[in-house]
Amino acid sequence: MNTQKQFSDRIDWSLATLLILFMLASILAISSAQTTGQYGESNFALRQGLNYVIGFIIITITMFFDMDQFRKMAWVLYGLGILLLVGLVVAPESIAPNINGAHSWYSIPLMGTLQPSEFMKTFTILALARIIASHNEKFIARTVKTDLWMLLKIGIVVGVPFILIDMQPDLGTMLVFIAITVGIVLVSGITWKLLLPAFVGIGAIAATLMSLVIFAPEFISRHFEDYQMRRIYSWLDPYSYSSGDAYQLTTSMSAIGSGEIFGKGYQERQVYIPDNHTDFIFSVVGEEYGFIGASVIVSLFFLLIYHLTKVSLETKSPFNAYVCAGVISMITFHAFQNIGMTIQLLPITGIPLPLVSYGGSSLMGTMFALGLIFSMRFHHKTYMFSSQEE
């Protein structure tokens, strides 16, 4: 017999509170960023507020479906996402315009643009969680052979959207898919006899490529496009490219550094950064609110990841745990990469700061992913006279 909680008690109020704090921080930062002359009369803060309203509606709808239903719908959602990505490849410019050199968005009259890859991230998480959960239920006795079979299935599921996103092209989103895959694979139960050599090999390849970039640029340049090489060198030595490819990076570091401890104050920015309401919103926070403001944003992400990790540890469903691992990996990589690129810790890849940067598709995709977490808590059951939970 299970005890029925009150409706309000089934809502994850801790996560809801964090999202409200993110919303306030996002709207505050964007409302200041949009005062830069390049945006004219555009009211991105109001649009972001509307995006959050839609995002909370998405969470509410998602929450009322339990995770067993999402497990059943995983392939349907994955297939829908693939169809949308294929559509970007074949659609004419009037439907899938070229924006910043990429065909990543659908143009929707009266609504703006829609980026399918932002939703495909969560669709892929659901598909991977279903594959791994079903595989582990079938192969209780694990062997290297069964683990290789699982890796092959994971590779196929991730490889299809990965290739389609590469055709757009969108390097930043491709890296997010890699991060999601790594996160889920790490908790999938695959033996370290396979994972350790794979990760060591990947690390060795990355170190070799970086060494060639630094010590043998003439060799590595034969195998990469010119713009890719400029992006790497502008990251390694930004001030030598400050008037070109590293302009955003150098101005971002200048803005964050000039904010010092307490910042310059709301709308008191002095450093001009293009597109500062999207990918470089953290630079706005750093300049206006200094180290204190930047620490608040970072702390919110730490609290969010901590809460998601807690949910994953409390759930008794392997499928739910794999979904949590994917969502945690996605948000962690997004935040680490975005903040890292504004301070030269990582190269610029053009991915937004989740829940803070302006962008409807990014925000709604993230809210859908977090809606799955709300669903886990909303449908969580406890049993009388037993420690059993589900």
UniProtKB/TrEMBL annotation:
GO terms for molecular function: lipid-linked peptidoglycan transporter activity. It comes from the Bacteria. GO terms for cellular component: cell division site; plasma membrane. Its main location: membrane. Keywords: Cell cycle, Cell division, Cell shape, Membrane, Transmembrane, Transmembrane helix. It is a multi-pass membrane protein. The keyword Membrane applies. This is Cell division protein FtsW. InterPro entries: FtsW/RodA. The lineage of its organism: Bacteria, Bacillati, Bacillota, Bacilli, Bacillales. It is found in: Membrane.
